[in-house]
Design brief:
Layout: H1 2-14, E1 56-57, E2 64-65, H2 67-77, H3 88-125, H4 130-146, H5 148-190
Antiparallel strand pairs: 1-2
Helix pairs in contact: 2-5, 3-4, 3-5
Length: 192
């Protein structure tokens, strides 16, 4: 009786607080539960895509791998790795943000150049002739009309990255659920 109580107390104390689940470092999942299209894995050494390959050696660098271990490592433990290195959607979102920032910088410099040119003309010659003034006004309007496009690119990049984060969080939850199910099954088999 006391031995069963001691086992229950030790099992209770070994669990983390508030119902969280700690994934052991040596955890692995059954790779047949996860499709290779939705859960691609990469070589931990050279980042070569291991899609379609059985457990064994990476054809690029010769690093040994096991898909079940790599699923846990890449979808649970390497959570902080930038998503734009891992997914096509992440790379597209990164380029939208970079392109938007470059366009904002160019348009800001163009706007600043127009303002400085107008001030320079005003300081040296007084008020410019009507033709020059119309040209400056048209250029200013063009730059001002182009302003929304880079912000749309920035917004698009942010939304795409949000989708990428959401998808990756779902993949992470699925791998953790498989680890939890395997741990529960092992616990039920071991309990008398």
């Amino acid at each position: 009786m006391s031995r069963g109580l001691l086992a229950k107390v030790s099992r209770l104390l070994s669990r983390p607080l508030f119902g969280t689940f700690v994934v052991p470092k040596d955890a692995r999942v059954d790779p047949t539960l996860f499709s290779e299209e939705d859960f691609p894995v990469f070589c931990p050494k050279c980042r070569y895509s291991l899609r379609g390959l059985r457990d064994g050696l990476c054809p690029e660098c010769g690093q040994p791998f096991e898909r079940g271990v790599l699923l846990v490592r890449q979808y649970v433990f390497e959570w902080g790795e930038p998503l734009w290195r891992r997914t096509r959607l992440g790379r597209v979102s990164r380029w939208c943000v970079i392109g938007g920032l470059i366009c904002v910088s160019i348009l800001f410099l163009a706007f600043l150049g127009i303002c400085l040119a107008s001030l320079l003309i005003l300081a040296t010659r007084g008020f410019p002739p009507p033709q020059e003034e119309a040209l400056h006004e048209q250029t200013f309007r063009f730059v001002w009309a182009c302003m929304p496009f880079p912000f749309v690119a920035l917004l698009l990049g942010g939304v795409l990255y949000g989708f990428c984060l959401r998808r990756h969080a779902g993949q992470r939850r699925a791998v953790i659920a498989a680890i939890r199910a395997a741990a529960n099954a092992a616990e039920h088999r071991s309990s008398p």
